[in-house]
């Protein structure tokens, strides 16, 4: 028998939001006593009040994290014990699936079916995967002469500041937390002011799972207050940042102005999706492009927002893309079948509508969508939008829109396609569609992007690194490579007495 359908509106109405800071295992108000309203983009309703963390709160959180690191209450535990705590943390995330999914959907407007099927399980799998890694990573011994032994060991860097965006709040937090905690660091997490709720619940679940107080602290607040205080802090050893390229630039400045802390930036993108005329599956390519750009209301750093399609197959491609648009009607994110929800806030909606206007003004053809809808709900909804006849110089071809807007550029030759694809300040992901194995390899190698997909776009897994070239960032989240960001490499030389007596 099927379980009865959940009435998400009833659950939302019954929710009690606790937006207080979490430091040293304790909830507390901001030192200033200030708070801000947490507004849901679904209908513009105030969900609750969230502490407006700032310098004094960041100081307290970093001091707590430092104490926890220095007394080795976490890093000093046997690896198998740390593994077990993190496994329990992952299990707790799954056990709280409905509550976390509801908070995520209310906070940033994504459809509840995807919060349930994607965000919660991905966050849990990330923590579980790094938990499994804790007692399976070995250090190195260098090939030195017989009178010496050189050990190359990894040690946690210490206190890590994690500053994350609102588009996948829980998954982005998990990508930072998984490797950082597995390696024995302490963490101060600053979630986006637009989506602070699940971060605070994650920290409570971690405590319940047995993570010692002080190891994982959460300070919600604004970027220019709590974020800046954290990134400038003299006692933070590294910053793991995910967000816009504009703020990533600031992170590097903060490090230069303070203690030269390590900065790992995971930034924006304008990923190219190239369909050649020897692609045998133009229709599948078109469906994949539409699904990938409309998912999460287009608010995905790796969304294939620039499609480059060979002129011989462009009409077929456009017809199939247009046929996908009705599958993504903007609707109530709490309704179980909704595929396209609300944009995160009014500002983001205005930005997206501004880009749509600029596309029209610059002469692109709006083939579908283009308008704000559901304004009567008080929420922030934009139709899935497709532009044809886009020139590579237009703003909608060059800048990250971060909304459900696909820009289609037609090309004639492989050389031209590659030039357009690489002519971008970004280099996060790309995709090549061709049945010619030589071309697929040639183009994949020539693309300046951290991930290149061939004849697909949807594969993703915690086992592979995620990050960009150029102004898309410098770090890699996920996979064992993420440990490079949260560990120091130490060399220890030991003299071995050459005499045996
Ligand atoms: P954002 O840069 O505005 O904010 C990100 C975080 O930085 C937030 O927590 C914010 O409060 C904080 N912040 C803002 N200004 C700050 C300042 N002056 N000092 C310190 N902290 C500050 O980005 P956003 O709008 O939240 O997120 C969208 C961006 O994130 C897009 O560009 C997207 O491509 C990118 N993103 C990248 C990845 C990736 O892995 N490469 C993943 C997800 C999102």
First CA to last CA: what distance? 77 Å
Beta-strand percentage range: 15-25%
Bound small-molecule species: nicotinamide-adenine-dinucleotide
Total of helices = 16
Biggest β-sheet description:
7 strands, mixed
Low-confidence stretches: none
Count of extended strands:
23
Which structural class best describes the helix and strand composition? alpha/beta
Average residue-wise pLDDT: 97
Name the overall outline.
globular
CA-based gyration radius? 24 Å
Give an overview of the whole structure:
The protein is α/β, with parallel strands linked by helices. Helices cover 38% and strands 20% of the residues. It contains 16 helices and 23 strands. The protein has helices spanning 8-14, 55-70, 79-95, 97-108, 112-133, 169-182, 197-208, 223-232, 245-257, 282-294, 314-324, 346-361, 395-398, 414-422, 437-446, 483-486; strands at residues 21-23, 26-28, 35-39, 46-51, 140-141, 148-156, 159-163, 186-190, 216-218, 238-242, 262-266, 272-275, 306-310, 365-368, 372-373, 381-382, 385-388, 405-411, 426-427, 429-433, 451-454, 469-470, 487-495. The strands form 7 sheets. The chain has a 7-stranded mixed sheet with strand order 14-17-18-13-12-20-21, with helices on both faces. A 5-stranded parallel sheet has the order 9-8-7-10-11, with helices on both faces. Helix 13 links the parallel strand 17 and strand 18. The mean pLDDT is 97. Bound molecules: nicotinamide-adenine-dinucleotide (NAD). Nicotinamide-adenine-dinucleotide binds next to helix 8 and helix 9.
